[in-house]
Amino acid sequence: MRENKFLAIYNDLADKIQKGKYMTGELLPSEHELADRYDSSRETIRKALNFLSQNGYIQKVRGKGSIVLDVGKYDFPVSGLVSFKELATRTGKPWKTNVHELVLVKPNHYIQQQLKLKKTDEVWKVVRSREIDDEKIILDIDYIKKQFVPTITKDCCENSLYNYFENDLNLVISFAKKEITVEEASSADKACLDLKGYTHVVVVKNYVYLEDASLLQYTESRHRLDKFRFVDFARRERR
């Protein structure tokens, strides 16, 4: 129960920071004030503040308090499997997905290797740019095995492919492997994204697996440099 309380306080404070109720450079209320406000113990408040600090929302300064940091970037969890729709909804800002391409293709040699396919296999290729607050900041290029997904519509692509896979096709998505690099912006990036003069993008190569360890999808998610930070939570094991 205490764990749930700490997470609820963390989520509420993070939401207020993201929405500008606590501004960059401003001090959060003191631990004592927050404990009264949330009807909670100082220990629980301290845990919530520590988690805010670990995830880049605040800087704790001894003798001064918790200073709100710039959160103009959007958190994209490295370890989690989060759809763009889920991420964008959390920001509270207007968002949109633009579908540039939705075709059934024979995989080239590179995609055959990534998805462990034969030349005769077919894959769905889906190219989408993602907008938050009227800026196109992500280009997603998805390759999905037709073996598991016989049909895809534009509406599914505009809404959420994960939602379609899980709720309409009853596929159970289990885990993903990710590789993160920084690359020179491609011609597709320049055509589909509002790059604002940036010459490089952050590329997340994502391999999505089903519960039986079958490889379902390979995605290249290409992010404008200034808008995203990739976060993870790591705990050191005592040796």
From TrEMBL:
Transmembrane segments: none annotated. The keyword Transcription regulation applies. Keywords: DNA-binding, Transcription, Transcription regulation. Residues 3-71 form the HTH gntR-type domain. Gene3D superfamilies: Chorismate lyase-like, Winged helix-like DNA-binding domain superfamily/Winged helix DNA-binding domain. Signal peptide: none annotated. It comes from the Bacteria. The keyword Chloroplast does not apply. NCBIfam families: trehalos_R_Bsub. This is Trehalose operon repressor.
